[in-house]
Amino acid sequence: MAGGTTRSLFDELHSSFRDRWNELLGSAREGDDDGAFRLRHPVQSDSSHLASALFQSVGARMTPGHRVELVDNGRVFDVLVAEIARARTSVNIVLYIWEEGVASDRVVAALEDRARSGVRCRVLVDAVGSPDFGGSLGPRLAQIGCETRIFRPSVRSAGLARNHRKIVILDGAVALTGGFGIRDSWLGDGCSEGAWRDTSVCFAGPAVADAQQAFAENWQEAGGPLLPLEDFPALASFGGAGVAFVGSTAHPIVTRAERLTQLLIAAATKRLWIANAYFVPSRAILDKLGAKASEGVDVRVLVAGQKSDSKSSFGVQQFHYGELIERGVRVWEYRPSMLHAKTMMIDDHLVLVGSVNLDPLSLNTLDEGALVVENPRLAAALAGTYLDDCARAELLTE
Fold first, then answer.
1. How do beta strands 199-204 and 174-178 pair?
2. Which pairing describes strands 368-374 and 350-354: parallel, antiparallel, or unpaired?
3. DSSP secondary structure string, 12-44?
C-alpha cells in the first residue's frame, strides 16, 4: 500500500482494526483457546507431501513444468513491457496501485500498441489503492482501447475489504505477480531513498490458469463479463519448477493467506527467511516463528525500517521484536528505502513471492495472491538477494 491520500485512508481504516487486533493478540498470549486458527500438526516439505498439504489446506495444486524468474525492483517494468509486447490475444491486469508518472507512461504505451493490434486489454484497479485513477488514467486507457473497471468503488461500504492483488496475465500463458504497483516508487534499484525495494516473479506453465482465475473472479465482481475461452488456453509444460498459485480473499474465521503462511512456516526444517513490508502477524504465526527458532531452524525476519510508508504498521511491528529475538529469531530493519517485498524462503528449495503482508489486513480482509515455487535454483537466487538486503539493514539486538 502507498502514500498520500491512499496512505491516510489506509491508516484511518487500519487504526480501528489495530485496536481490535491487539485485543486478539493479548488474549492469545494468555492461552491457546482464543478460537483463532492454528495449524497444529507437522508438515513435511518434500514434493509429494507438500503438494498434498497445499491442496488440503488452501485448495491449490502444486504442478510441475514451470519457468519462473525473479524480478527485482524497477526491472519489473522492463519485464512487464516486454511481455505485453509479446501478447497476441489478451492482457489482463489487476492492481492495487496505479498512478500517473514515468512508470505508468511506459505501461500505457505498451498497452496502446497491443490494443491497436487487436489484443483485448483489461485493467482492474482498487478504489482505495488508486483513488485518482478515474480522473485521467481511466479515460486515457479507455481511449486507447482498454476496458477498465474499479474494484468496490463504494469505499466506505466496502471498508477494509480491498483488492490488494498484483497480477498481470498475458495470453493466459505468462503471468507476473509480487509486490509491485504502477507508480514511480517502484522505479530504481531499491537501494536509494525513494526507490522501493520489492520482489516479483514472472512465470509460465500450468499455474498461470489459477492466476487468470483470480483475475476473472475480481473482473466479474467489478461488472465485467466472463472471460472468453481463449483466455484459458492449454498450457505448455516446461519441465521445470513445481508451482502453485494461491488466491486469498476475506473470511470471517480464517483466510487462505493465514493458512498458507502457517503451512510454509511449519514445513521449515533448516531455514526460514522472511522479508515483509508490514509485519504485524497473528499470534499463531508469531508462536510458530518462535517455535521454529527454538528447534534450531535458522529463522530470519527482514522488515521495513524507518523509511516505511506506514508509521502505524512500523510502530506496531516493533512490539514483537523482543519476543522474537528472545526465542532466537534474528530481525533486521531495512535502511536505504521502503522495503515492500513479501517473500518467504523455506529450507533450500521452497520460495513464496506474492502480495501477502503479514498484517491483519492481508491475513484477514484483503484479496491477495501468492506464488509457491519448489525449485532449488530459485531459492538460491532469492537467498543471494536476501543476504544483500540484510547487509543494507540493521540487525536488531533487543
1. antiparallel
2. antiparallel
3. HHHHHHHHHHHHHHHHHHT-S-S------S---
pLDDT at position 208 over 90: yes
CA-based end-to-end distance of the chain:
28
> Which letter does DSSP use for residue 134 in this model?
I
| C-alpha R_g of the chain | 20
Answer CATH for 4-63+242-395 from 1.10.10.60, 1.10.10.10, 3.40.50.720, 3.30.870.10 = 3.30.870.10
How far apart, in whole angstroms, are the C-alpha atoms of residue 265 and residue 50? 12
**Does 114 or 16 have the greater pLDDT score?**
114
Question: CATH code for 66-241?
Answer: 3.30.870.10
| d(C-alpha 205, C-alpha 55), whole Å | 18
What is the residue type of 23?
E
Report percent pLDDT > 70 for the chain. 91
Parse the chain into domains and list their residue ranges: 4-63+242-395, 66-241
Chain segment 287-297, per-residue pLDDT in tens: 999 999 999 99
Is 337:197 a contact under the CB 8 Å cutoff? yes
- Is-above-0.85 flag for pTM? yes
Integer CA distances (angstroms), 71 to 1, 147, 340, 356, in order: 19, 27, 13, 17
Closest by Cα among 7, 255, 257 to 128: 7
Cell triple for residue 37?
Answer: 486458527
- Residue 292: per-residue pLDDT: 98
Kind of pairing between the strands at 330-334 and 241-248 = unpaired
Give the three-class secondary structure for 65. strand
- Cα–Cα distance list, 370 to 32, 66, 107, 111, 207 (Å): 28, 15, 23, 25, 11
* Beta carbons within 8 Å of 5's beta carbon, 6+ residues apart: 131, 132
